[in-house]
Amino acid sequence: MSESPVPSLPWATGRALRPGWLPAVLLLLTPALLLGLAGLAGPGSEVDRIVRYVFAPFCHQQSDRCLLFGASLAVCARCAGFYAGLALIAGAGLGLGRVVRVRPVGLFALLPLVVDGSANLLGLWASPAPLRALTGVLASVPLALLVLGGHDDAR
């Protein structure tokens, strides 16, 4: 297939979804779907308890670091942003049938998460939940693009 008309970006090129894209899309959508299901079921429900158990190995689930929508989520703000970013890219790839393939330099989008997360861990500052969510979204985009489209060889 030919390349899609994607603007020339220093960190990406346009490509059709690779063969076998459906499992990748489902993998990227699953966390957001589970979190949405727990939210619909309500705090303290059996579904909410199961979803919290599933995400516990991946997130500290500290209530003071969660985005609050009437009740805390099963994940912190950074993880919620990360999973939202995965779902956003998966949904866009599914809807468009094309993805932007990330070049290795695109992985610099992980830098804000590393800097902010490390500074929080070291006690240098305490980021507000929206900033934590934003660093999660930024970090998830190149990773989701790698899952959907692979990487672009140095050409």
In short:
The protein contains 5 helices and 2 strands. With 155 residues, it is mainly alpha-helical. The longest helix has 21 residues, at 21-41.
Report on this model:
There is one protein chain. The protein has 155 residues and is mainly α. It has one domain (12-149). 54% of the residues lie in helices and 6% in strands. It is built from five helices and two strands. It has helices at 21-41, 46-55, 77-96, 111-121, 129-149, and strands spanning 12-16, 98-102. Strands 1-2 form a two-stranded antiparallel sheet. Helix 1 runs antiparallel to helix 5 and helix 4 (111-121) packs across helix 5 (129-149). The longest helix is centred in the first third of the chain and has 21 residues, at 21-41. It is flat. The two termini are 17 Å apart. The model is unreliable at 4-11 and 151-155 (pLDDT under 50).
